[in-house]
Amino acid sequence: MLQFLLRRILAVLPVLFVVSLVVFLILRLAPGDPAAVIAGNSATNEDIAKIQVQLGLDRSIPVQYGIWMGNVFQGDLGFSYYLNKPVTELIAQRVEPTLSLAFGTVILALLIAVPLGTVAAWRMGGWLDRLLSGFSVAGFSVPVFVIGYLLIYLFAIRLEWLPVQGYKSLSGPSAAGPWAWMRQLILPWMTLAMIYVALIARVTRASVSEALTEDYIRTARAKGISETAVLLRHALANAAVPIVTVVGIGIALLIGGVVVTETVYAIPGLGSLTVDAVLNRDFPVIQGLVLLFSVSYVLINLLVDLSYLVLDPRIRY
Amino acid sequence: MNNLQRLWANGSVKFGVVVLGTMILVALLAPFLGTVDPSAMDSNFINKAVGVSGQFALLDGSTVQQTFWLGTDSFGRDLYSRVVYGARVSLGVGACTAVLALVLGGGMGMLAGYFRTVDAVLMRFMDGLMAIPAILLAIALVAALGATISTVVVAIAIPEVPRVTRLVRSLVLSLREEPFVEAARALATPTHIILFRHILPNALAPLIVQGTFVAASAVLTEAILSFLGLGLPPDIPTWGNIMAEGRVQFSQYPGNVLYPALFLVPTVLAVNLLGDGLRDVLDPKFARRGA
């Protein structure tokens, strides 16, 4: 068991190395000298040269990568060119809205998708099943922001049930109550959950329907236990591994969706920070965010892999 | 029944071909579909409603009688003309991205599958690239390379490359063990001929299927990048750019965001369905694996 844990964790290291390399090289690819950007318009050549030495930009690329990684491990992601603040500070300020958006979306998507997929598998070929297969193709063809604007149009502009845009914080000096927080997030959650529901429901349907053909389901039914118990305790429990897997893989989609959804709903989170950073060509911030998002994605999937041990007692690596 | 007839018998393929074909015709015939220059703006026609018509001033100073089927935007440009011309850019970006991703991914997949020496390093690199969420990688690449049509195509294609590479690698790994490849090798056939003449044609069907899915996601990603203001320059009419422009005044004029979607969504749906259908017909083995 310990050996498995160790092997799995070690396997993540080369992935993280490549991620850091790519993220580092993207900054190097960018035109323009970061030292000149930091020094500003009125700087002399000596000022720029001094900053170059300070940042280590006069060293070779591998050395620069080493310096950068060293800083990253100490929790230093550099300084924003544009806002002149540490990148980590900028990120810390924006974590709450993004986590609120992401967690709520995953929970909402699971609450909709798992029952939907299970029932579709149970009554395969029925109307719900056909509806689901149509919905899942559509879910991958409608961009997140179109869904977002349709929902805004319907629920915020036409019906005026929910606020159009914005975010109310749960913590900090300007904290609003949980109800105000939730009201702001209902539409973003629905928007972002759409693709995720399509993804999870499809996999749930496939794996539950496979489980339903197993002998132990026939045995369970023969024992005379209720159909609900057959579905939940026997079929769904055995279909858990692929469902959890697709939730992990879907995090990549979720992260892309967060960037778009935060822009549509004017939520001041990490996604809108990303967009602002790109518009301002603020490369240390872009670098820090891409690194943060990718590392989170990799680590979440590591957790998913480890969860198999709990979900499927047969798995003993 | 030959392959073409089997394809046409498939409902998804039929829908995909008809809708996509219409969209391609619209893109090609854009100047003849009652459009005006998509970048011409007339300050007398700012934010006009659907169906308004009048004497519209063109860039060269002449005027023309024009009916604004989809209204006009906040610069006084004809939305209908912009959406129709936008089909050119969106479809073009989709097609170019798919070709580029297939060429890069196909090449690297063949290298990794055929030459064991590069396999491990190349595939670890691909794993790392896949760990960066696709839209984020595209955004970062656009930021680094600048936004022109060719850099946007490259930026959207690169995140798709690892998936294509993995697919081609696994195909090559099984094909290289086939007797006909072994025979070719025994006859001292040069490696590049084995790869391109013997292995590639057998990997073509799944590659085409993958290519359609890449094209669908490329059209979406281009729209998303432009919508965020990070894609092609705003004066180029693309569906994403038109929506980005309409975003600011969405509550007064929702049409500027929603009308381009009426073109974008059916296009992506058609390409996705085409891919599903092609997969079912051309590549039944792959279909079962993917399900």
Structure notes:
Chain A has 317 residues and is mostly helical. In chain A, helix 1 runs antiparallel to helix 13, helix 5 packs parallel to helix 13 and helix 11 crosses helix 12. The model of chain A has no long low-confidence stretch (mean pLDDT 84). By secondary structure, chain B is mainly alpha-helical. Chain B has twelve helices and two strands. Chain B has a two-stranded antiparallel sheet with strand order 1-2. The longest helix of chain B has 37 residues. The two termini of chain B are 26 Å apart. The C terminus of chain B is likely disordered. At the A-B interface, helix 1, helix 7, helix 11, helix 12 and helix 13 of A face helix 4, helix 5, helix 9 and helix 11 of B.
Q: How much helix, percentage-wise, in residues of chain A?
A: over 70%
The major sheet of chain B is characterized as: 2 strands, antiparallel
Largest sheet of chain A: none
Q: Report the largest inter-chain contact.
A: A-B, 53 and 43 residues
> What is the rounded Rg of chain B?
23 Å
Defining key terms:
heterodimer, A: 317 residues, mainly alpha, 0% strand, globular, B: 291 residues, two-stranded antiparallel sheet, 69% helix
Provide a brief overview of the structure:
The complex is a heterodimer of chains A (317) and B (291). With 317 residues, chain A is mainly α.
Spell out the blueprint of helices and strands.
The complex is a heterodimer of chains A (317) and B (291).
Chain A: H1 2-29, H2 34-39, H3 45-55, H4 61-73, H5 87-122, H6 127-139, H7 144-158, H8 178-212, H9 215-222, H10 227-238, H11 240-264, H12 270-279, H13 283-311
Chain B: H1 3-9, H2 11-28, E1 53-57, E2 63-67, H3 79-114, H4 116-130, H5 134-145, H6 149-157, H7 161-175, H8 179-186, H9 191-227, H10 239-247, H11 255-282, H12 284-290
Antiparallel strand pairs in B: 1-2
